[in-house]
Amino acid sequence: MPDMSASASLAMTHLVSFAKEVDEDKVTPGVLGFIVFAAMALAVWALMKSMSRHMNRVDFTQVPDPKAEQAEAEAKSAATEAEAEASGQGKKQG
Fold first, then answer.
1. What is the pTM of this model?
2. Counting beta carbons within 10 angstroms of the beta carbon of residue 93, is it exposed (0 to 12), middle (13 to 18) or buried (19 or more)?
């Protein structure tokens, strides 16, 4: 069985040399930043799924309001009466 300590020490020398290449003045988010970002992404995903579920439950059929229909009918009748009076007065003047 080959000696694993030689390969482990070789790997450590590569990692140490890589660590020396990293700029010590540079700030990186690290593991904590990734965890916070992942938690926020999961929260947004859960909120969007919940919103989609709630929007699918909404019934978009609108029941007409009887008072609004009555007011609209009265407005139309008043408009037709006004047009009839205006056309009648125009004929009298002409």
1. 0.41
2. exposed
Q: What is the DSSP string of 6-67?
A: HHHHHHHHHHHHHHHHS-TT----HHHHHHHHHHHHHHHHHHHHHHHHHHHH-----PPPHH
Number of domains in the chain: 1
Cβ count within 10 A of residue 72: 12
In a domain, 20, yes or no: yes
Q: Is residue 69 part of a domain?
A: yes
State percent of the chain over pLDDT 70.
Answer: 70
- Establish if 94 belongs to a structural domain: no
